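Repro case for the chain-ordering regression, as requested:
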Amino acid sequence: MSHNSFGQLFRVTTWGESHGQGVGCVIDGCPPRLPLSEKDLQPWLDRRRPGQSIFTTQRRELDQVSISSGVFQGVTTGTPISLQIRNIDHRSHDYSTIRDAYRPGHADLVYDLKYGVRDYRGGGRSSARETAARVAAGGVARRVLGDGIRIRGALVQIGNVRIDRTRWDWASVDNNPLFCPDPAAAIEFQALLAFSRKSGSSVGAVIEITAEGVPPGLGAPVYGKLDADLAAALMSINAVKGVEIGEGFATAALAGEDNADEMRIDDGNISFNSNHSGGVLGGISSGEPVTVRFAVKPTSSILVSRHSVDRDGREIQVSTPGRHDPCVGIRAIPVGEAMIACVLADHLLRHRAQNPNAPTIARLPLE
Amino acid sequence: MSHNSFGQLFRVTTWGESHGQGVGCVIDGCPPRLPLSEKDLQPWLDRRRPGQSIFTTQRRELDQVSISSGVFQGVTTGTPISLQIRNIDHRSHDYSTIRDAYRPGHADLVYDLKYGVRDYRGGGRSSARETAARVAAGGVARRVLGDGIRIRGALVQIGNVRIDRTRWDWASVDNNPLFCPDPAAAIEFQALLAFSRKSGSSVGAVIEITAEGVPPGLGAPVYGKLDADLAAALMSINAVKGVEIGEGFATAALAGEDNADEMRIDDGNISFNSNHSGGVLGGISSGEPVTVRFAVKPTSSILVSRHSVDRDGREIQVSTPGRHDPCVGIRAIPVGEAMIACVLADHLLRHRAQNPNAPTIARLPLE
Amino acid sequence: MSHNSFGQLFRVTTWGESHGQGVGCVIDGCPPRLPLSEKDLQPWLDRRRPGQSIFTTQRRELDQVSISSGVFQGVTTGTPISLQIRNIDHRSHDYSTIRDAYRPGHADLVYDLKYGVRDYRGGGRSSARETAARVAAGGVARRVLGDGIRIRGALVQIGNVRIDRTRWDWASVDNNPLFCPDPAAAIEFQALLAFSRKSGSSVGAVIEITAEGVPPGLGAPVYGKLDADLAAALMSINAVKGVEIGEGFATAALAGEDNADEMRIDDGNISFNSNHSGGVLGGISSGEPVTVRFAVKPTSSILVSRHSVDRDGREIQVSTPGRHDPCVGIRAIPVGEAMIACVLADHLLRHRAQNPNAPTIARLPLE
Amino acid sequence: MSHNSFGQLFRVTTWGESHGQGVGCVIDGCPPRLPLSEKDLQPWLDRRRPGQSIFTTQRRELDQVSISSGVFQGVTTGTPISLQIRNIDHRSHDYSTIRDAYRPGHADLVYDLKYGVRDYRGGGRSSARETAARVAAGGVARRVLGDGIRIRGALVQIGNVRIDRTRWDWASVDNNPLFCPDPAAAIEFQALLAFSRKSGSSVGAVIEITAEGVPPGLGAPVYGKLDADLAAALMSINAVKGVEIGEGFATAALAGEDNADEMRIDDGNISFNSNHSGGVLGGISSGEPVTVRFAVKPTSSILVSRHSVDRDGREIQVSTPGRHDPCVGIRAIPVGEAMIACVLADHLLRHRAQNPNAPTIARLPLE
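-- result from build under test --
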C-alpha cells in the first residue's frame, strides 16, 4: 500500500510540493530497452505548462524534466526511473494571509484535521503542481504502449457551454489554447472565460479522452477492472468530481437494446456496430476506442470574497488574488491523458503476465 | 497486486462464479474483538437477494452466509474471516444456446479474448452473483465503522424519470421495493419498469448513497484519495458506467463562488454552509456527509433480438429469455452501500496507522 | 497489503484455524487454461498429512482438498481458485487446561498481547494446520511452473545428526518416512526421534530444498529479489528460525576466489563450474539449481514440564501431553517445497510482465 | 507490487545507480509532525560511508543527504519524503574491460539475461551504493520508532574467526573500525583482513543486530510475520546469503525443553527466563530484544584471476583491481540496522491500524 503510488506493475510514486525544491516521481517496473530521453518527455510537460495563453495562470514554471536514473545509453534498463522537475518560481511570498486561513473549496482545513500540520505555501502537496510529475510519468507510459495506441483529450464543456459533437475536429484541438474540438464552441469558451476572469470568478469543465488502438483483453475482473482503475486514476486528479465511461450517466436513460453494442463479422474480424460501452465490457477492453469523461470543478482560488474560518476558530472573509487558472480544467487535459496512459501501460503488463499464450486474435479495426 | 482483492488494510478477496459451488470472500485485517455472527450479515444479504418483488429476477437464491473462520466465541479474532454463500439454484440448464454466443453488452467476448476460456454458465465470474460476497463483506465493514456512521442508498433515476429531491424521504426508501426516496416517483418508476418488462427490454438507473458521521481526515493524498477509492469501488460493480461525488458533473456549470463550500463557526465548531464537495476535499473527508452517485446501464440480458456473432465467427441473432432483472440498478443499492462501507473501513484503519495522535477535534455536526 | 496473502501476481490468501470449519486459500492471478483437478493437488497434501509414520502426530486428518471456483471443464479460467480442506478431527476436547495457559515456545501469549483474544483450540491460526492450505496452493503453483522445473526437499539434519552429503540419494528420500537422502543417516534419525519421543521431548531439524530447471532471469532487484522472497516464504512457515541460500552461513568463512562461481562455455552455452551461489546472483536466478535450507525449531508441545504463566498472571507448570509431532521439521518438507513453488510461479509471471522480449538464451544445462 | 519498494505502511522506494546522478528514495506513509532534518540522517550515512578505515574501499563518496520534500518548518508533514544523495566520485573511468565481461560472483550475467541491457559502470543498480538510500530511510524509520527502541549491530565473524560472546562489549563496537564487540577478536579480524587484502582476496562475515525496546504485538500472521519481513529485508541486501533469528540454525540441535523460553512473573509483569526465540513467537514480537544474524559473502571484486566468459561467448580471465572493500560485511552493519528499523517502523504502523485498543500491557523489562 502506498498513498502516493499509482499502478501495480507500471508503478509511479510521486513526491513534492508546490514551493519546495521540486516535484518528481519514481517509475518502477518499466520494461527494459525502450528508447528514452528527456526529449521524449518534455513535449508533454510543455503542453501542461502554465502561462501559455491568457486563459491559464501566468506563473512562470519552466517544468524542465530530468532523468536521474534507470536510463543508460539512451534506453531504459528495467531499473527504477527517477524523474525530477525543479521548482523555479518560488519567489519569497508573504504567506501571512493564507497561513492561518482555511480557503473555501481548498484542502487547507482537511490537511490540518488529518495531519495537524500543513505546508501552506502554494497549497503544498495539494497543489496542481504535483500533476507535472504525472505528466512526466505519462510520457514514459506512452513509450511502453508504443505508437499503436493513441491517447487524445479535448475540452467538451466549460461552464454551461457544451460543444456540438457533430463539429468534432481533432485538428481544432491543437489549434486553440483551450483544447476544444469544436472551433465554434472554442470562441464561446473564450468569451465565457474572459467574462469569468473579469468577474474574479472561475468556471468548471468537462474533459473527454479517447484511447485508440487499445488491444482487447486489458483489465482484470473484478477489482482490477480497467474502468475501475481508470476511474480511480482520473478521480485522483485535483478538482475532479465525476468520471464516466462510454455513455456514462446517459446510459441510465437508455433501453437495453439501445445500449448494448451489437456485433458483426467484418472482413473476418469481430466488429462492433456502436461503442456505447466506451471500449470496456465486464472490466476488460474490447478493442474499441476507450472513451472516458471527467468533470473538473471551478477553481477555488477566486477574487470574490467568501465566508470562512481560520486556525484560531475565528470567522473571516477570504479573497484570493493572484495568478490562478480561471479554469483548471484546461490544464487537466494533458494530466488526464497521462493518467490514462499510465493505467493502460500497467494493464498491458498485467495482462501479459497472466496470459502469455492468449489466443492471438486479429486486432479489431479502429472506427 | 490482486485482481480480485479490494482495499489495503481492510482487505476483501472474493471468489466464485454464478453456477459453481458458491461465492465467498476472505476478509483480512479486520480488527479483533468486534462482535460478529451470521445474524449481523444476513440482513444485508437479504436486501440484495433476488425475487423479493416482481421488479427483480425471480431466481431463487437463499444467499445464506456462513462464517468459516476468524470468529471465536462471537468475536473477531484479528485473523482472516472467510465468508461463504453456497449456490443452490444451479438447475441443470441447457447452455447450448449461449455457450458459443457472444451476447451484446455482456463480457462473453472479452473473457474469451483475454483468457481463451470462459465459464458460460450464468455469466460465470462476470455474473452479478459475485456481488453477494461484497455485500457480506460490507456487513463486516459496518461493524468496523460502528454505529456512528450511517450508510444509506436510494434510487434517484430510472430510465429518464428522476426523483424530485424536495420530496426526499428516507422512510420511503424502506417502504417501496425500488428503494425510491420519493413516493410519487416510486409510482412512476414502477410503471416504467412494468412497461419495460412487457417490452422484453430493460432500463438503466442512477443510485445515490450517503454516508453520515464520517470523521474528518479519512483519505490519503494523492493516489489514495478517499474519492479515488470510492470511484474505483463503485466502478468495479457490474454494469456501472459513471461515478460522481457531491455536485459531480453538475460542478462544471458552477461558478467558483457557488461551488466552494463556505465555512462558519457553529457552537465553537467549524461548520460548512453547504456540501457541494460531497464531504471530500483534496481527497480527504471533511466531516460532512459523503455523497456519491453512480449510473447503472440497462440489463443486457433482454428478450429483444439483437445482432451478434459466435465463437465460430458466424453472425447470429441473440435473444435472452429467462428470469433476468429488468433493472439491475435496483439490486445495486445494497452492493453500492457495501462498497462504500468497505472503502470507509479501509481508510479508517489507514488513517489510524499514520495519525495516532491526530489532534482531536470536535465532530462536525451532521446536517 | 495483506497479512494473510503471499505473492504478488500468483497470489495466495489463506484462511482457517486448527479447530474451525476448515482451512483454505484463494489463489488469484493463476494463468488460464491449465489443466487442474483435485487429483493434481491431493498427492501433495497426502505427503504432508499426519499419521503416516510413528514419527509424526497421530491425529487423523484426511486433508481432502476441494476446488470451489476458478476451474471449468478441467481447466483454470483465470479467475480466483478457491481451495478448501475441511477439518474433520475436531473432537470435543476439554481445553480448560490450555485455555488460560501460555505455553512456552508457543504463540499463545503474543496473540493475547496483540489481539486481546485468541482461539485456543489447537493453536487456532498459529497451528501448523494452516500449512495444508499452502501445500494445496503449491500444487497449483507447480502447474504454472510446468514439468520443466522440479522442486524436491530433503531432511539433512535432525538434532545434532547431519547427513553425509556424499551419500546423497534422492531415491532414499521417497523410501523412508523422514525424507532423508542418506540411508545411513535415516537410521540414526529414527533412533534419535525414538529416544526423543520416549523422553517426552522433541528435536529440531534442517531441511534442504532444490529447484532444478529454473530459467535464468527470475527475481527483481532490489526488494523483490528472488532470494529475499524465498527467505520470507520459508521464514513464514511455523517454527522456522533460519534460512540460507547456496553456501549460506558457510560463505562467511570462504575466500572470495573460493566463493564466486567461475563460468565457462559449454557446448556454446554459458555454464558455471560450481554453484556456491545457490542459483541466485544479485537477486536474479542464474539458471543453476536454486538451493535453500531452513532450520526448524523443536516442537514446543512437549511432555516435559516447564515453567510458565497464565492469563491471570500466575506462575504455573505446563506439560503438553497428546498427539504432537516430535519433530515438526519432517512435515515441513512438503510445506517448504510448496512455498518455493509459489515464489517461483510468482516470479515467473513477474518476469514475463516486464520482459516479454527478453533475449532467448539456451537453457543452462542442469548439473 | 513494486520491485524497488520495501514495506507496506512505512514504504520506501529507492532508485539510482552507482555512477548515475545519484541515489535516493521516497518514503511514503511517514507519520506527520516528527522533527526531521538532514542532521538527523547524516550520522547514519557517515557510519556507512567508505574510506573511513583501511578496511573499506578508498572511494571518496561524501554521501551528503538532502531532503527534497515532505518536511516543512522542521517537521514531517505526512506527505512523501524524498531523500537524495548525489554521486560525486564518478571519474571518467575506462570501462572497456568490464563492459563485456561477466565477473564471477557478480550480477553482470543475470542482468543481461533478464533485461538484455545493463549499466556496467560500477555495477549499476546492483552496486552497494544503492544501500546509501536504505541507510537514509532507516534514519527516518528511527524517528518513527522513537528513542525507546534501540537498534545496534556488530560484526561477530570474519572468515573463520568468531568472537567470544562472553567478551561482548557494546562500547567496543564504537571503538574499532570493524564494529567488533569483542576487543580481542577485533585484533584477529584486522590481521585476517590485512592478510586477505595483501593476497588480493576477500572474506565473508556474519553480522548480528539487536533491537531492544520493541513492544510486544508487532508482526502479523501468517505471511506478514515480523521475522518473515526481517528475513526478506536482510536477504535483500547485496551479498547476503543467510538470515537467522534467535538461536537460528543452532535451534535444530536443541531439545524442545532447552529451546522454548520459560516465563515467570517479575514485579507483576510477564517475563522470559531466556530469549532463544530472538524476541519473536509465532511471527509476533514478544517484548524481548529482537535478535537477528545475517551472513555476507566475500567480495566478488578481487585481484585474484578467475575463469569467466564475456558477452560474445568467449572464455576469459577476470581480475578486478581497484578500490574494493575486502569485506563488504563491515559496511553492511549500518545497512542491516537501517533495514531492521524500516521493518519495525512499518510493523508499528500496521499494528496500530488493526489494534487501536489493544490491551495496554506493562512494557516487558529489557534484559
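Ordering looks correct now. Chain D has a mean pLDDT of 92.
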